[in-house]
Write a structure and sequence with these properties.
The protein has a 5-stranded antiparallel β-sheet with strand order 1-12-9-11-10, covered by helices on one side. The chain has 208 residues and is an alpha+beta fold. The protein is built from 5 helices and 12 strands. Strand 10 and strand 11 form a beta hairpin. Helix content is 31%, strand content 35%. The longest helix has 20 residues.
């Protein structure tokens, strides 16, 4: 545990766009079936797990190219389609829509008719777009977690401040001191810390 002092206000990029809900769409182009599966993810590990799940579900498919953007990390794969004809078009759609924390896998079952480079790019792009349209988009806020201890005499004031900033209480314990673990919008973090510091006259300890 460490004591903390009043911090200067800091301004952050507060929100981002992402897909609203998991979705799946199917389009057929010249006898090839394209299945777009997508969802919102919190981190890269979750994106990779989703990709593996789709590959396992459609293990008999011709290809399972994908793309994802998680915060400032992005990645894509053509999964044996010609270079930059599958993963990159999917990624381009995500970036053009300015989406973050999203993963899209477009499964292809080859129908016997070759689409050519341009045809593949258009097909994967269309499948990704249709998937995003089916899901819809939503604005979400960047959040951070804070854990701290406070004397019981300030319990009521802390609860009021938590409600004021619309924090999510992830954990609360009543032992020697009151312990809180909360999730708060990133832009509000410094103001929240400064406010509880003033209300408790500095008798707050952060826990890492």
């Amino acid at each position: 545990m460490v004591d903390f002092k009043i911090l200067p206000p800091i301004f952050y990029m507060d929100s981002y766009l992402t897909v609203k809900k998991p979705a799946r769409v199917i389009i057929n182009i010249k006898k090839s079936k394209f299945i777009a599966s997508l969802k919102n993810v919190k981190n890269e590990a979750e994106a990779k797990n989703f990709i593996n799940e789709i590959k396992k579900e459609f293990k008999d498919a011709s290809h399972n190219p994908y793309a994802y953007v998680v915060n400032d990390i992005f990645n894509s794969s053509d999964d044996s389609e010609p270079l930059n004809t599958a993963g990159k078009p999917i990624l381009d759609v995500i970036l053009k829509k300015n989406l973050k924390n999203v993963v899209i896998v477009v499964t292809r079952y080859f129908g016997g008719i070759k689409l050519g480079v341009g045809g593949l790019i258009r097909a994967y792009r269309e499948a990704a777009l249709k998937g995003i349209e089916a899901s819809g988009t939503i604005e979400k806020f960047y959040e951070e977690e804070i854990s701290f201890f406070v004397d019981y005499e300030f319990f009521g004031e802390i609860n009021k401040t938590i409600q004021k900033y619309r924090c999510k209480i992830l954990e609360k314990k009543m032992e020697n001191n009151a312990f809180f673990k909360i999730s708060i919008r990133k832009r509000d973090k410094e103001n929240f810390l400064n406010e509880i510091l003033k209300k408790t006259k500095g008798k707050v300890k952060l826990s890492f």
